[in-house]
Design a protein that fits this description.
Elements (H helix, E strand, L loop, with lengths): L7 H16 L3 H14 L5 H16 L3 H13 L7 H14 L30 E6 L3 E6 L8 E5 L3 E4 L20 E2 L7 E2 L2 H15 L3 H6 L4 H16 L4 H10 L14 H9 L11 H8 L3 H28 L1 E5 L11 E5 L2 E5 L3 E7 L7 E2 L5 E6 L2 E6 L10 E2 L10 H12 L6 H4 L13 H14 L4 H17 L7 H17 L8
Parallel strand pairs: 11-14
Antiparallel strand pairs: 1-2, 3-13, 4-10, 5-6, 7-10, 8-9, 12-13
Helix pairs in contact: 1-2, 1-3, 2-3, 3-4, 4-5, 6-8, 8-12, 11-12, 15-16, 15-17, 16-17
Bound molecules: S-adenosylmethionine.
S-adenosylmethionine binds next to strand 2, helix 12 and strand 11.
GO molecular function: N-methyltransferase activity; protein methyltransferase activity; S-adenosylmethionine-dependent methyltransferase activity; zinc ion binding
Pfam families: SET, zf-MYND
Keywords: Metal-binding, Zinc, Zinc-finger
Length: 518
């Protein structure tokens, strides 16, 4: 199949398309095409060197001299034609000359650290969070301490992630960093890029050596995100057990872990696999296993596995696809292109303002703790992502002993109750009985203003969001947190709901890349 194979002709063509974008000063699309060109370049051909050299030209124009120099080095190390060395040499000395004017990326992440002592066995979460279980809610998380607005209670790494197809040439397949598109290709397949040799090695030692021969099919076939996640989880698990399916299956049948919070020792990857395996799933969710069947026929190593253990593999993949639809998270981030599609907009809601989020999803991931947090249409925590890490932050005061509630994408402020309940039943198989559903809170435009001073703050915050800097957002979060905390008796008022939206927006602004690619 054409898109599976390295091809000098295709690589050259992609670079030429990139050159047209470069001539039009559309640097983002130029680098994307150079990245694709790198992925299709045959090893040992000069296409690699040429693509790196062209990328160095773009970074030079963007005043990213360090990146430009690194790409010049890569060009030389990858068969850039010697007869053109003079061009690189000139660019190199200009970079060195201009280095002190280099643009720097310096996002301040100091806000995003745990507000409490970490749990000693699972340090990604605050030690005040406890697991409970009952008939109504299943497993759920409560806090044994009162939590204040703005508290950071979890910073969790994923067990597994999968990039959406559209972002394959924009982010590291392993850690999801964009690195301003400064990525390196897999030397064998054409669909995967990495930000560093470390990510390349880690991915390859784990899942990528299984996926690499069929990566084009995985990304272009009809496998949905949950199926791709199931497949990657399977390969990661297999790698941990020395590629032995017997060992993996025996481990899964002989061991059990109710949840991540029952693990009384620092977690290793085997326990993570057990914990993922223990997440809630629904057997009635239909999984088209024929697609897996087809995939495993495409490569000798996979075929061998399939012939000897088809039933066990199918059981694993089916279960994990079903786990995915109830538990896996979409990962959000800002577009990297200047003036990209998702720039935030303000919308008017009867005198108040609501902010449309500027971020969009680019990957899916599995998170052990966050998968134990239940839904409310009026949640008490908000989430943001730093690359592949999920950050959970308190968005309204939470009393000691109360449950932590996330939102699964259905908020009472903009979706009517019947629709929310129907969708939650359809996608998550439960009837929502949260306070917004049971007390039938109205949509944002129908809510009342209760406190005029807080309302003025809410309006001002919304108006300023569009042009807010990271520093201002950090300061504003503190102010908003204080106002929500103090006026929470008025919930659900226009001003508190509007401030909660600004709160989420401010966190996202703090994570907005300082440099976007024009
Ligand atoms: C991500 S899991 C949350 C943890 C889950 N309760 C468990 O026991 O593993 C999502 C599932 O939790 C349940 N759930 C989430 N929110 C709920 C709520 N507000 N009321 C009842 N069940 C809920 C649903 O079964 C849903 O499919």
């Amino acid at each position: 199949m054409e898109h599976c194979l390295k091809s000098s002709a295709k690589s050259t063509k992609l670079r030429e398309i990139g050159n047209k974008f470069y001539a039009d000063k559309n640097f983002f699309d130029a680098i994307l095409k150079y990245n694709e060109s790198l992925c299709y370049a045959e090893n040992g051909s000069d296409n690699m060197g040429l693509a790196y050299a062209n990328r160095s030209a773009v970074y030079f124009e963007m005043k990213l001299y360090e990146k430009s120099l690194r790409n010049i080095e890569l060009a030389r190390a990858n068969n850039y034609p010697e007869k053109n060395y003079e061009i690189l040499k000139k660019r190199e000395s200009k970079c060195q000359e201009l280095m002190k004017n280099s643009l720097k990326t310096a996002t301040d992440l100091s806000f995003f650290k745990l507000s409490y002592e970490p749990n000693k066995d699972y340090p990604s979460i605050a030690n005040c969070l406890k697991l409970k279980s009952d008939k109504k809610y299943g497993r759920h998380i409560i806090t044994n301490k009162a939590l204040a607005v703005g508290d950071v209670i979890a910073i969790e790494e994923p067990v597994c992630t999968v990039l959406q197809e559209e972002f394959l040439y924009q982010r590291c397949s392993h850690c999801l960093k964009s690195n301003l598109l400064d990525l390196m290709p897999c030397s064998l397949c054409c669909q995967v890029m990495f930000c560093s040799n470390i990510c390349l090695q880690n991915a390859y030692n784990s899942y990528h050596r299984f996926e690499c021969p069929v990566s084009a099919i995985i990304t272009t076939s009809f496998l949905n995100a949950n199926m791709r996640m199931a497949l990657r989880t399977f390969f990661c698990a297999l790698a941990i057990f020395d590629d032995s399916l017997e060992k993996l299956m025996t481990f899964l049948t002989e061991n059990n872990l109710n949840s991540i919070l029952d693990c009384k020792a620092e977690l290793n990857f085997k326990q993570k696999i057990l914990a993922i395996n223990s997440l809630i799933f629904d057997e009635s969710i239909d999984v088209n296993v024929i697609l897996f069947d087809e995939l495993f026929q495409l490569n000798d190593k996979l075929k061998e596995m399939w012939i000897s253990h088809r039933d066990e593999i199918i059981t694993f993949l089916k279960k994990h696809t079903q786990i995915g639809s109830l538990n896996y998270h979409e990962i959000y981030g800002w577009p990297l292109k200047k003036g990209g599609l998702y720039d935030p907009e303000m919308e008017n809601f009867k005198g108040t303002l609501a902010y449309r989020r500027g971020v969009s999803s680019f990957a899916n991931g599995s998170y052990l703790f966050c998968s134990l947090v239940n839904h409310s249409c009026a949640p008490n925590v908000a989430k943001v992502f730093i690359d592949d890490k999920i950050i959970m932050i308190v968005q309204r005061p939470i009393k000691a002993g109360s449950q932590i509630f996330d939102n699964y994408g259905y908020s009472f402020t903009n979706i009517p109750r019947e629709i929310r309940q129907m969708e939650l039943q359809k996608h998550y198989r439960f009837t929502c009985n949260c306070e917004a559903c049971s007390e039938n809170f109205g949509l944002l435009p129908s809510l009342k203003v209760v406190d005029k001073i807080a309302f003025r703050h809410a309006k001002k915050s919304c108006q300023e969001l569009a042009n807010m800097t990271q520093k201002q957002a950090k300061q504003r979060i503190k102010e908003i947190s204080g106002i929500i905390q103090k006026n929470f008796d008025n919930f659900p008022s226009v001003e508190i709901c509007s401030l909660a939206e600004s709160f989420q927006a401010c966190m996202e602004i703090m994570l907005k890349p300082e440099i976007l690619i024009p």
